[in-house]
Design a protein that fits this description.
Layout (H helix, E strand, L loop, with lengths): L1 E12 L2 E12 L3 E5 L6 H8 L7 E6 L2 E2 L4 H5 L2 E4 L11 H12 L6 H7 L15 H12 L6 E5 L9 H9 L3 E6 L2 H7 L2 E6 L2 E5 L8
Parallel strand pairs: 3-8, 3-9, 6-7, 7-8
Antiparallel strand pairs: 1-2, 1-4, 4-5, 9-10
């Protein structure tokens, strides 16, 4: 079974198309990179794949479920790192993860494990507002995998990460179907087997291993 099947996804903001008839098929276990300049439609596409917004038109199936009708069921199977960390600034790093555990029905006992995974054990009691931008991004990545999702959606996950950041991404992507957006071609090549290039909301080019729905 394919992990993700998108057919003719389109999304409009007023009279401006952010996405225009995007087709995509991702097999389970695949790592796919979405490449493109600012304004190409990467963030809009990933927000739709994460079920954060609905497309204006088109079909989307995730893990065998209609993503437009089964959004609640799918939320527990998807991990999502948005373009900004989206943390609660007044909560500590540990409290941010614990709160997310409660939202997703995950075990709070995983919090120390996830802090260690992200290299944040030493700052567990610091408020998110006191963390560097790179540490905030690490925390957002840890939060995205707290509930052990089957599908991981990452919007420029390398933003503000230090030199060891790609190693964290390798660890969290292991054994998970992943779609990520990045400007970094080298990072895409390192982390993903397939690439999709977006220009003005349309698929412009794809890596040779990418399977595109016809």
């Amino acid at each position: 079974m394919s992990a993700l099947v998108a057919e003719r996804l389109s999304h409009w903001f007023g009279s401006d198309p952010a996405l225009d008839s995007v087709d995509l098929l991702v097999d389970r276990g695949d790592h796919v990179a979405i490449l493109g300049e600012n304004g190409a439609g990467k963030t809009t596409l990933l927000r739709i794949l994460a079920t954060a917004i609905r497309p204006s038109s088109g079909k989307l199936e995730i893990m065998g479920l209609d993503a437009l009708r089964e959004r609640r069921r799918l939320r527990g199977r998807i991990g999502y790192v948005a373009h900004t960390p989206g943390l609660y600034p007044a909560l500590t790093a540990a409290e941010n993860l614990a709160f997310f555990c409660d939202l997703r029905g995950a075990d709070r006992e995983r919090v120390p494990e996830m802090l260690d995974l992200a290299g944040l054990s030493q700052v567990a009691r610091k408020r998110a507002s006191e963390l560097s931008r790179g540490m905030q991004q690490r925390l957002a990545i840890a939060r995205a995998v707290m509930h052990d999702p089957l599908l991981l959606i990452l919007d420029e996950p390398d933003a503000s990460l230090d030199a060891e950041g790609p190693e964290l991404l390798v660890r969290v992507m292991k054994d998970r179907t992943t779609v990520l957006a990045t400007h970094d071609q080298a990072l895409a090549t390192r982390l993903c087997q397939r690439t999709v290039v977006l220009r003005r909301g349309r698929v412009f080019g794809a890596g040779s291993r990418l399977r595109v729905v016809q």
